[in-house]
Structure formats: C-alpha cells, structure tokens
Amino acid sequence: MHTPASYSRREFLGRSLSCVCHLALMALPFNPSVRRLWSSRARGQVVAEEPFARLEEIGEGLFALISTPLGGDYTTVSNGGIIAGSDGVLAVEGFMSPDGALWLAEKTRELTGRWPTHAVITHYHSDHSRGVDGYLTEADGPDVRATAVTSELVLTRRREPADDKTQRVWADVTLLDENEASLIDLGGRTVRVVPRKGHTPSDVTIELAEESIVWCGDLVWNGMFPNYVDAIPSQLSEAVRAIGRGAWSAYVPGHGPLADAAELEKYVAVLDDIEAAARRAFERGASAEDAGAAYEIPAELGEWTLFNPQYFERAIGAWMRELRASG
Fold first, then answer.
1. Would you say 224 and 185 are in contact if contact means Cβ atoms under 8 Å apart?
2. Edge-to-edge, what's the strand order for the sheet holding 203-208?
3. Nearest CA to 37 among 10, 71, 62?
4. What does the alpha-carbon distance between residue 247 and residue 263 come to, in Å, rounded to a whole number?
5. Distances (CA, A) of 248 to 107, 125, 300
C-alpha cells in the first residue's frame, strides 16, 4: 500500500509558493480541540480518510477531497475531488505533493474502476498545482487542463526549478479558454469550467449544473480567512458574488469544510467587512500593519481560522494598493 509523505515545516516552506505557504508556521500550535472541530465537519459520507485529507461522497460518482492539514501533514493541503462519468473521470486539483495526487488517483480507481482521464487545476499556487505529476503512470496520464496564465505561472514562480517530469506535464497541458466557459464531456455528465479572476490573475471554477455542485478553487474559503497574497480584492469580491448567484446546493471551497449557501453568505460578509476596514484605514491614513493588528472578524460571522497573523494586514494592504491605484 502506498504511503504518502508528510513534509516537515522546513520542507514545506522550501518547496512551496502557495496560498497557504505560512500554514506550516501556524498549524502545529493549534490545540487538538481546534483541529478536531475543523477537521470533523463532514457533510457527505466519508469513504476514505488519512491524516492529511478525507474523501466525502457528495453524489453518485462525485467525491470532495477535504484537506485537513492542521495537524502538520501537508501531503495535499488544498481541497479537490473526483467527478466520474461513464466514459471518463476528472480529478480536481494537483495538490501540494505528487503523493497527494497519487493518493487521489488511487482512490479514484478504487471508487470508479478507472484512473483519472482528466485533471483540472484551478490556479497556479503550489498547494493546488505542484503535485500534478503524481497522476502520471509510466505509460499514461490524464489530460491536464489549466489556463495559459496558470501554466506560465506554475513554471515561472516556483521556488525551485521544475524538473524534467514537471516540464513535460505542463508542456502538454490542454489550455482552457480564459474568456468563455469550457465543457468537458465525461459521458452522461458534462463539466463546465468557468474562467474567473480575483484570488489570482487566472482562476477557474468547476461546475455541475444538474447536480448543483461547484468546486470554487481559492475564490472561496470556508471557516478560514483567505490569503490575499496575489488577490485583486474588487475582482475577488465580484467573482464570489457571481459564484453565489448560481445558488448551488454544495460549494467545495479551496480550503475548509464543504459549504452551503448560508456559509457562503458569511464568507461574503467577511470579505465585505475587511473591505470596509481597509477603506476606513485608507481614509484616515493608517498603515496596513496597524489596521491589520486592530482588525477582528465580527463575532456574528462565526469562527474563522487565521493561518498566519499577517493575513489581515495582507488583505488590508491589498485593498489599499487597489484604492491608491484607482485614484
């Protein structure tokens, strides 16, 4: 049986240019009760579980991978999933390590009878893309799909040079349309991949209209405050609202447990509140550092995990840069 590797904090930081690259500095101090609360919020039937992630069945041939890295195992880090049709199976995301992608591929074969035929990467951050070559076998691999911007940034913003195998994977990527939705026919199930922006310059969501399920990438976080490291805040807010207008029954966020409409509303409220705080700070000439240190998420919006104490400052700083640029 294959055993995925668990990276140390030093290894994680050395390998990662990810939307949660500071998670390694923060996860281990979380007390066991916090870790249990966050990691145990399953909505679907759990069909497989490891310290780093669980698979929840959320429909016929549909599975959400929910990563649980707060204990310090960064094999996957991001969420993902499996979408099966009669002719093909799509894996969502490439994860932090090849071991993470390999684990999902092996579970895909156990649950659906076949290895992934397709994979979609929602954006370039390492915790979603770095492990994609774990899907490759000696003879074959899935049709990996991503936008041209994502593909370029995967190769140019890595902390270490891409090896030959990674170069081959990304050289053969099928490019998604960055202006119109792309359709993937899996046989009796059509997946719609929608280009968006906000968390990075090039994000996509993966949508199943009939089943009313959407994989949101890191445009949506649940129970965790998002990282604005590459965010364009106004576009992020617009994209999240556009996703919400779909009135989906289930939202698979980039990080955190599965979300419903009420939880998405709370997330929108958190985004709005940090924007308001940034605008107030900007108007009075305060620094992002001071405004971030003073900020607190309103209690009525629930409990939100903060991976790094600089995340509030980072979000407010991103808003301030956009406000200065707009004049």
1. no
2. 182-185, 190-196, 203-208, 213-215, 250-252
3. 71
4. 12
5. 26, 25, 23
Query: How is the chain split into domains, by residue range?
Result: 9-261
Concatenated DSSP letters for 171-227? HTPEEPPSSS-EEEE-SS-EEEEEEE-SSSSSEEEEEETTTTEEE-GGG-BSSBPPP
What DSSP string describes 23-88?
HHHHTTTS-HHHHHHHHT---SEEEEEETTEEEEEEETTEEEEEE-GGGS--SS-S-EEEEE-SS-
Of all helices (H) and strands (E), which one includes residue 111? helix 98-112
The phi, psi pair for 140, rounded to 5°, reads -155, 175
Cα angle, residue 303 at apex, residues 58 and 265 outer, rounded to 5°: 60
Residue 125 CB neighbours (<10 A): 31
Helix, strand or coil, per DSSP, at residue 233: helix
Q: Which is it for strands 143-146 and 118-120: parallel, antiparallel or unpaired?
A: parallel
The pLDDT of residue 51 is 93
Quote the CA–CA distance of 154 and 144 in Å, as a whole number. 13
Q: How crowded is residue 25: how many other Cβ atoms within 10 Å of its Cβ?
A: 14
> 184: which 2 tokens?
């993937």
pLDDT tens per residue across span 85-132: 999 999 999 999 999 999 999 999 999 999 999 999 999 999 999 999
pLDDT digits (tens, 9 = 90+) for 179-231: 999 999 999 999 999 999 999 999 999 999 999 999 999 999 999 999 999 99
pLDDT band at 165 (very low <50, low <70, confident <90, very high): confident
Distance, first Cα to last Cα, the chain: 58
Domain 9-261 is in which class? alpha beta
Distance CA 304, CA 270 (A): 9
